[in-house]
Automatic annotation (TrEMBL):
GO terms for molecular function: ATP binding; RNA binding; tyrosine-tRNA ligase activity. It comes from Sphaerotilus hippei. Pfam families: tRNA-synt_1b. The gene is tyrS. This is Tyrosine--tRNA ligase. One of its GO terms (biological process) is tyrosyl-tRNA aminoacylation. It catalyses: tRNA(Tyr) + L-tyrosine + ATP = L-tyrosyl-tRNA(Tyr) + AMP + diphosphate + H(+).
Length: 412
């Protein structure tokens, strides 16, 4: 989809424009239409008028994880080139529920849930974006005033046939799975956001391509220059298979403790690490290529992984926190125990090991605790436990489950 031929002057492709294009392309899945984006960059460079770059996130959960920061990092890179970035909180669209990639209707959130989640979103996003240069908007600003009449007029600008070309709707229809009428409104409302904001570029994950193209279509319908779209890959989570998601428990939350974040980052594979560098690191591509060449020449890949973990922990906490997290990780790797851990008192000695682990909050159930014992994942005062029938006597014990869960338990 290319925008209509314009009578505007052709602006030169300067070195700065080429640099901006290279930064735009880094790690991206698609940049559409690229010729239009080059033209916009050249015009901005020649006129000194920054481009308007939009990212919308629905506050469907109270926290942001590293997967969300892939597009936030791209926003920051473009922000550092001098463009205007708009962090759009979809407080209105959250009440519809994004059907992207869904095979069932997504339950809409209540206004109260949205308000609670939205309060943390921008604060966390500001750990990546420069808050002094970020325009924050809520799409209820223009969606609420539309009313029934405006919604009908908006819906008249797109056909059901085109809507049914969307993969998730197409598959659900042919599978006989229900599609609620309000789900058709979601891409329309997301596209209307681009009209309201006069967006030049909209970012999103690869699963958002249909919605982003809707923005181009509606801008043309409303007589605006259509936005370009830039899609970023979905970050694969800690399991190395599925996209990062809280529901799959393969995520790293950006508000997690520094030590936990560092340890989780060190758990990714040596192969996966390089994709994470491209999508999450703020290092230049040349720096990353040089580091990768050193590893290929024989340098321990763990050095590169530690460097990535330090960078990300420092970004969301501090350099001092990254130093402390690295020391804590090395201490644990040597079989040591952390200096700080939860402390609690329990009664009932002698207490079965499964019950002890559950009551200490180290496992969800006694049966899970016994499975961990069977798998060799439980230590008391540094000694591995293998007896599922063990009863713990009165005293104070350092109890460990797996590599990262510790508690100092005083049992009476």
């Amino acid at each position: 989809m290319s925008s209509p031929v314009s009578a505007e002057p052709v602006h030169p492709l300067t070195d700065r424009v080429r640099e901006a294009l290279a930064i735009s392309r880094r790690g991206c899945e698609e940049l559409l239409p690229e010729d239009d984006w080059v033209r916009k960059l050249a015009r901005s460079e020649a006129t000194g008028v920054p481009l308007r770059i939009k990212l919308g996130l629905d506050p469907t959960a109270p926290d942001i994880h590293l997967g969300h920061t892939v597009v936030l990092n791209k926003m920051r890179q473009l922000q550092d080139l001098g463009h205007t970035v708009i962090f759009l909180i979809g407080d209105f669209t959250s009440m519809i529920g994004d059907p992207s990639g869904r095979n069932t209707t997504r339950p809409p959130l209540t206004a109260e849930q949205i308000k609670v989640n939205a309060e943390t979103y921008y604060r966390q996003a500001s750990l990546v974006l420069d808050p002094e240069r970020t325009e924050i908007r809520y799409n209820s600003e223009w969606c609420d005033p539309l009313g029934a009449r405006g919604m009908i007029q908006l819906a008249s600008r797109y056909t059901v046939a085109r809507m049914m070309e969307r993969n998730d709707f197409h598959e659900r229809f042919h599978a006989g799975t229900s599609i609620a009428v309000h789900e058709f409104l979601y891409p329309l409302m997301q596209g209307y956001d681009s009209v309201a904001l006069k967006s030049d570029l909209e970012l999103g994950g690869t699963d958002q391509k249909f919605n982003l193209l809707m923005g181009r279509h509606l801008q043309a319908e409303y007589g605006q220059e259509p936005q370009c779209i830039l899609t970023m890959p979905l970050l694969v989570g800690l399991d190395g298979v599925e996209k990062m998601s809280k529901s799959k428990n393969n995520y790293i939350g950006i508000s997690e403790p520094a030590n936990t974040m560092f340890a989780k980052l060190l758990s990714i594979s040596d192969v996966q690490m390089w994709t994470w560098y491209t999508l999450l690191s703020l290092r230049s591509e040349a720096e990353i290529a040089a580091l990768k060449a050193e590893v290929e020449a024989g340098r321990n890949p763990k050095d590169a992984k530690v460097a990535l973990a330090r960078e990300i922990v420092a970004r969301f906490h501090s350099v001092a926190a990254a130093d402390a997290a690295e020391q804590d990780f090395q201490h644990r790797a040597r079989g040591g125990i952390p200096d700080e851990m939860p402390e609690l008192s329990l009664a009932g000695a002698p207490l079965g090991i499964g019950a002890l682990l559950k009551q200490a909050g180290l496992v969800a159930s006694s049966s899970e605790g016994l499975r961990m014992v069977e798998q060799g994942g439980v230590r008391i005062d540094g000694v591995a436990i293998s007896d599922k029938g063990l009863k713990i006597e009165a005293g104070t014990w350092v109890v460990q489950v797996g590599k990262r869960k510790f508690a100092r338990v005083t049992l009476g």
